[in-house]
């Protein structure tokens, strides 16, 4: 009231409108915060922790953390919208996913517990990576036999892609894998794969290898690269000569 008496009516009216807008904005923010705490308690706990940490950080670091929080909120919102299009599963934390819920030493025990709640097909997040788990003989057989085209490819690991562009017999997919597999089998048959002579020569060379290994008698240089190469080379030569 004192402020209105000292200022013109137009200024006083504008001030009251700004104050009411600020109050309505604050109430909307509080209601959204409460709704988030009810629907996503894990995100609410993270926001509370960040609020405590941000009070002691510098401005550049504060900006970075705010941007990261915004990204996590948008990604969580996007994943919740697409939740109906994928198998059910436990909700995970940003970045960590469901790693805190997993028994990392025996992950199969955790997965078996999740099958009791979500069924034989469910989704988990190992860090930021989404994984669909198939449990049970019938489910795995249906996926690999009836839907072999959809489940036929191998998972692409970033380290292998950087190392060899996901090529080779072990990590390629599709037509490239079929061609490499055909080439490898053709050449291995030339070395005696699937023949009785190859089996006999491998057994004979294994006997010589065991005699050599006994001479090491517990030393640290048991498996030498040159020794393994010699064994492979001798088997190839014996099969060729046969």
Describe what you observe in this structure.
The structure is a single chain. The chain contains 11 helices and 2 strands; from the N terminus they run αααααββαααααα. It has helices spanning 2-6, 9-39, 41-54, 59-81, 107-118, 137-146, 148-151, 158-164, 174-190, 196-216, 225-241, and strands at residues 121-126, 129-134. β1 (121-126) and β2 (129-134) form a beta hairpin. The model is unreliable at 1-25 (pLDDT under 50).
Q: State mean pLDDT (0 to 100 scale).
A: 70
- Proportion of strand residues: under 5%
How many helical elements?
11
Cα Rg: 32 Å
Low-confidence segments: 1-25
Instruction: Count the beta strands.
Output: 2
- Pairing-aware structural class of the strands and helices? mainly alpha
Trace the largest sheet across and list its strands.
Answer: 1-2
- 3D shape: elongated
Explain briefly what this protein structure is:
With 242 residues, the chain is mostly helical. Among the domains are: 87-152, no CATH class; 191-241.
Chain-wise SSE layout:
Blueprint: H1 2-6, H2 9-39, H3 41-54, H4 59-81, H5 107-118, E1 121-126, E2 129-134, H6 137-146, H7 148-151, H8 158-164, H9 174-190, H10 196-216, H11 225-241
Keywords:
single chain, 242 residues, two-stranded antiparallel ribbon, 2 strands, disordered N terminus, Cytochrome P450 2K1, heme binding, oxidoreductase activity, acting on paired donors, with incorporation or reduction of molecular oxygen, reduced flavin or flavoprotein as one donor, and incorporation of one atom of oxygen
């Amino acid at each position: 009231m004192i402020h209105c008496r000292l200022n013109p009516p137009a200024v006083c009216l504008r001030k009251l409108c700004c104050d009411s807008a600020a109050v309505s904005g604050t109430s909307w923010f509080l209601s959204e915060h409460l709704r988030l705490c009810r629907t996503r308690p894990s995100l609410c706990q993270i926001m509370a922790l960040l609020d405590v940490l941000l009070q002691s950080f510098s401005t550049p670091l504060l900006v970075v953390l705010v941007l990261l929080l915004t990204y996590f909120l948008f990604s969580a919102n996007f994943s919740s919208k697409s939740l109906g299009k994928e198998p059910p599963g436990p909700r995970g934390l940003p970045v960590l996913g469901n790693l805190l819920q997993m028994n990392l030493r025996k992950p199969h025990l955790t997965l078996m517990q999740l099958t009791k709640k979500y069924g034989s097909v469910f989704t988990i997040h190992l860090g930021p990576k989404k994984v669909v788990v198939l449990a049970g003989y019938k489910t795995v057989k249906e996926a690999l036999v009836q839907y072999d085209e959809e489940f036929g490819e191998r998972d692409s690991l970033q380290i292998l892609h950087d190392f060899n562009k996901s090529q080779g017999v072990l990590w390629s997919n599709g037509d490239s894998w079929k061609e490499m597999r055909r080439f490898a089998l053709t050449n291995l048959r030339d070395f005696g794969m699937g023949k009785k002579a190859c089996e006999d020569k491998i057994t004979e060379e294994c006997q010589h290898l065991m005699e050599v290994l006994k001479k090491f008698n517990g030393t640290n240089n048991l498996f030498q690269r040159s020794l393994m190469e010699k064994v492979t080379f001798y088997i190839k030569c014996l099969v060729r000569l046969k």
